[in-house]
TrEMBL record:
It comes from Pseudoduganella aquatica. Belongs to the UDP-glucose/GDP-mannose dehydrogenase family. This is Nucleotide sugar dehydrogenase. InterPro entries: 6-PGluconate_DH-like_C_sf, NAD(P)-bd_dom_sf, UDP-Glc/GDP-Man, UDP-Glc/GDP-Man_DH_C, UDP-Glc/GDP-Man_DH_C_sf, UDP-Glc/GDP-Man_DH_dimer, UDP-Glc/GDP-Man_DH_N, UDP_ManNAc/GlcNAc_DH. Gene3D superfamilies: NAD(P)-binding Rossmann-like Domain (3.40.50.720). SMART domains: UDPG_MGDP_dh_C. Residues 316-416 form the UDP-glucose/GDP-mannose dehydrogenase C-terminal domain. The keyword Hydrolase does not apply. NCBIfam families: NDP-sugDHase. GO terms for biological process: polysaccharide biosynthetic process. SUPFAM superfamilies: 6-phosphogluconate dehydrogenase C-terminal domain-like, NAD(P)-binding Rossmann-fold domains, UDP-glucose/GDP-mannose dehydrogenase C-terminal domain. Keywords: NAD, Oxidoreductase. It comes from the Bacteria. GO terms for molecular function: NAD binding; oxidoreductase activity, acting on the CH-CH group of donors, NAD or NADP as acceptor; oxidoreductase activity, acting on the CH-OH group of donors, NAD or NADP as acceptor.
C-alpha cells in the first residue's frame, strides 16, 4: 500500500470523521463536509458529538479539513460517508448520496477509486451512484475509475466497538480494486477486513445487520405488549429466560436513530422493486414504530390510575436523544412520545444532559430545560437512560414528582423499588 496516495473522505459526521482521523494519522487525507460549522470545530480539534477526542484529532497530522469541493480533485481514493435517510413514505431518500456523487464526479481524476460507506439496498452503488460519477466526470467506469463498497459499522456513543476494532467488510468492482480497497482499510483497521465477493453482497450484508436487530427488538416489544396485557413484568420474564445459554439478550425499547429504524426500509424497497412483498420485516417495523404511542398511552393510564386528571397535567420527559450517552437526535422516537402526550392536553417539559439545545429546537421544536428548572410533575418519563440521569439520587427524582406522581421507565434502567416505596406508581416497558 502506497502511503503517499491521497484519501478524501466526503461527509464528516459520525462515520466520516473517525475515518478521516484514522487515515490522517497514516497518509495525506482530505476531510470534506459542506458544514462550515463542523469544519471550524474540527480545525480547533473539537468534535461536538464526542465521538472523536481532541487528542485523536490532533494526532491526525496529515488530515486537512475543508468545505471546498475543488480540494477533492487530487484524491486517489474517495470515501463517501453521507446519510441515507428515508422520506415520510419510508422510501429511500438518496438526496445526500446523489449530492455527494455529483460532487465527487466533478472532481474525480482518472485512475481513482470511489468507495461508498453509506447504507443502501443491494445494487444501489452501481445503479444509482456510478451513472452519476460517469456523467459528472466524463470518465468511464471500470476503464477510467473504479468503485468499492465498505459498509460503515459505527455504533455512536460506543467507546469499545470503534472503527479500528470492528472487522471491516470490503468489496470492489473487480479483483484488483478489491485488493486495493482491502489494503486501504487494513492500514487503519486493526481487526482486519472481510472480503465480500461483490459490491452487492457487501451492500446486502450491511442492510441485513440492522434489519436483524430491528426484528429482534420488535419481538421483544411485541412480547412486552403481550405481557403488559397479562399483567407480568417483561424484565423479570427476560431475566428468567436469559438463564438458558442460547437465549438472545435483546430488550424492548424505542427504535430510532439513523440506522436500525431506517435501513430495513431500504431492503423492503428493493424487495418491492424485484417483485417480492416482504412481510416479516415490515411487521417488525410496524411494531417498533408504534412503541412511542404505547408508552405515552401507558403513561396516561398510569396517571389516571393514580388519581391524576390528565388534561392540564405536567409530565417531565428526561432524555431526548435516540440512544443513551450519545447526543444524536436524529429520528428520536422520544419526540413521538412528547407529541402523543401533548395530544392528551399534557404540559410537557423536557431535559436531556447531552443533547444540543439548538438542535432539539430545530429538529423537534422542543425547548430543553435544565434539571433544576423542571417543575414538580404528575409523571416523569425516563425515556433515555443517560449515565447522568442514572446517577441522580432517587430522592431528587421523587422531589420532581407530586405526591401522586408516577415514574415511567422506558428502558427498565432505573431502580424502581425506592421510588415505589416512596408512594409513587411506577411502570416499565
Amino acid at each position: 500500500m502506497n502511503n503517499a496516495k491521497v484519501v478524501a473522505v466526503v461527509g464528516l459526521g459520525y462515520v466520516g470523521l473517525p475515518l478521516a482521523v484514522e487515515f490522517g494519522k497514516k497518509r495525506p487525507t482530505i476531510g470534506f463536509d459542506l458544514s462550515e460549522r463542523k469544519i471550524d470545530s474540527y480545525r480547533r480539534h473539537c468534535d461536538p458529538t464526542g465521538e472523536v477526542s481532541s487528542e485523536q484529532l490532533a494526532a491526525a497530522t496529515q488530515l486537512r479539513v475543508t468545505s471546498d469541493p475543488a480540494d477533492l480533485a487530487g484524491a486517489d481514493y474517495l470515501v463517501v460517508a453521507v446519510p441515507t435517510p428515508v422520506d415520510q413514505a419510508h422510501n429511500p431518500d438518496f438526496t445526500p448520496l446523489i449530492g455527494a456523487s455529483i460532487t465527487v464526479g466533478r472532481n474525480l481524476k482518472k485512475g481513482a477509486i470511489v468507495v461508498f460507506e453509506s447504507t443502501v439496498y443491494p445494487g444501489a452503488t452501481e445503479e444509482v451512484c456510478v451513472p452519476i460519477l460517469e456523467r459528472e466526470s466524463g470518465l468511464k467506469w471500470k476503464e477510467d475509475f473504479h468503485v468499492g463498497y465498505s459498509p460503515e459499522r459505527i455504533n455512536p456513543g460506543d467507546k469499545l466497538h470503534t472503527l479500528t476494532t470492528i472487522l471491516k467488510v470490503v468489496s470492489g468492482d473487480d479483483a484488483a480494486t478489491l485488493d486495493e480497497v482491502a489494503a486501504l482499510y487494513e492500514s487503519i483497521v486493526t481487526a482486519g477486513v472481510y472480503r465480500a465477493s461483490s459490491v452487492k453482497v457487501a451492500e446486502a450484508a450491511k442492510v441485513i445487520e440492522n434489519t436483524q436487530r430491528d426484528l429482534n427488538i420488535a419481538l421483544m416489544n411485541e412480547l412486552a405488549l403481550i405481557f403488559d396485557k397479562i399483567g407480568i413484568d417483561t424484565l423479570e420474564v427476560l431475566q428468567a429466560a436469559g438463564t438458558k445459554w442460547n437465549f438472545l439478550p435483546f430488550r424492548p425499547g424505542l427504535v430510532g436513530g439513523h440506522c436500525i429504524g431506517v435501513d430495513p426500509y431500504y431492503l423492503t424497497h428493493k424487495a418491492d422493486m424485484v417483485g417480492y412483498h416482504p412481510q416479516v420485516i415490515l411487521a417488525g417495523r410496524r411494531i417498533n414504530d408504534g412503541m412511542a404511542k404505547f408508552v405515552a398511552e401507558k403513561t396516561v393510564k398510569t396517571m389516571i390510575a393514580a388519581g391524576c386528571h390528565v388534561k392540564g397535567s405536567r409530565v417531565n420527559v428526561i432524555g431526548l436523544t435516540f440512544k443513551e450517552n450519545c447526543p444524536d437526535l436524529r429520528n428520536s422516537k422520544v419526540a413521538d412520545i412528547i407529541a402523543e402526550l401533548k395530544s392528551y392536553g399534557v404540559e410537557v417539559h423536557v431535559h436531556d444532559p447531552v443533547a444540543e439545545a439548538d438542535e432539539a429546537l430545530h429538529e423537534y421544536g422542543v425547548e430543553l430545560e435544565r434539571w433544576e428548572d423542571l417543575p414538580r410533575a404528575d409523571a416523569i418519563v425516563a425515556a433515555v437512560p443517560h449515565k447522568e440521569l442514572l446517577a441522580i439520587p432517587f430522592g431528587e427524582l421523587c422531589a420532581k414528582l407530586t405526591p401522586m406522581g408516577c415514574f415511567i421507565d422506558v428502558k427498565s434502567a432505573f431502580d424502581l423499588a425506592p421510588i415505589s416505596a416512596a408512594g409513587h406508581a411506577v411502570w416499565r416497558l
